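Deliverable D5.2: sample structural annotation.
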Amino acid sequence: MDIHLLAMKVAQTLRQDGLRLTFRKALTSFQHNTARNEFDLKYGTATGGTTPLWKCQITSPNRCFGVRYQATDEQELVDAVNSLRESLETFSFIDLGCGKGRTLVVAANLGFGRVIGVEFARELVEIAKENLARKSIANGDVVHTDAALYPFPKGDLVVYLYNPFSKEVMQKVIVRLRESGARNLYVIYNNPKCAEVFDSSGFLSRFGCPPQRPNIQIWKGACNQD
């Protein structure tokens, strides 16, 4: 347990939300963690609940910019990927801040050529790897590293983010994305609190959002524009 990070996060939340909203968020998180998890019952995995970062041992100096793990809704990701209208076997799916790896299971089922999770909390990395093993996902991997340092692989990319960190890290991710030289590149951003970082990147432009999913925004690499 990282007591220093816990104190920092509590102080930050109190400044932003006040005492009443902070308490309400804590109660919602508790209810979410104890709720019946249909996805895990369906697939035999362990991806549910929320995990605050202060419960993990994280050595990265960027841990103060990170956001707790909370699993993506399966249908949200399916809708977002389907809206791309691409043949997925040529694409690598990369989840930055993959947590327990739910999106990797979903992406593998959708037919991506490769699925890769990037996570800086070792405890979550181990859980994600176990989930991939349970589903015998041979084309999947989980990389234990800071997203700000992750070198994207060559080839076509779909990058997914569920509000995993603040702009201090996102700006470094943008640099890495540009360096990847991906011929076909999409960024799917759920709860896009740092949308302006992508809008000002100079090589990404808005692709739109999936039908009935206004909380998800998608960007497309400029080299892939029609």
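Annotation notes: Strands lie at 50-51, 69-70, 91-96, 114-119, 140-144, 156-162, 185-190, 204-208, 216-221. The two ends are 49 Å apart (CA to CA).
The annotation will be released with the project's public dataset once the embargo ends.
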